[in-house]
Write the C-alpha cells for this entry.
Amino acid sequence: MKSNHIVVIDDDTDDCELFKDACIQLSIKNDIIIFNHSNEALDYLNSMNDKPLFIICDVNMPRINGLELRQEINEKENSRLKAVPFLLWSTSGSASLIDQAYSLNVQGFFKKPSSMNELQEILSIIINYWSHSHHPFN
C-alpha cells in the first residue's frame, strides 16, 4: 500500500477519532492528517509538497463547508489539488446534496456510518481503491 497520507477534514472530533481508530484496526500504514476547519485544511493543501492519497471532507462544517471547499479548489487555475481524489461524507445522504456534490466533480460521496464495522468496511474499500487507482497526481 502507498505511504501517501490521508487528509481528513471534519469539525466533529469524535468522527475524526473513529476514523483514526478504524485505520489502526485495519492496519492502515498511511499517516492521517486531520483538520477541524476547512480554512486550515485549504492553507495546508495549498502549501504542501507531498501527495495525499485522498482527501475526505465532511459536508456540514462552519465557515467553509465541504461543498464550498471543493468549489474553491475547483476555481483555482492550474491547481494540482484538482487531481487529488476528493471525497465527501455526511450524516445526510439526500439526493439533492449528492447531486450538488457530484456537480463539483467529487470522486465519492459516503454517508457517515453508524458502526465501527461499517466504517472499517467503507474505509477498506476507499483505501484499496485509491491505492490501486492511477490518477494524474500519483
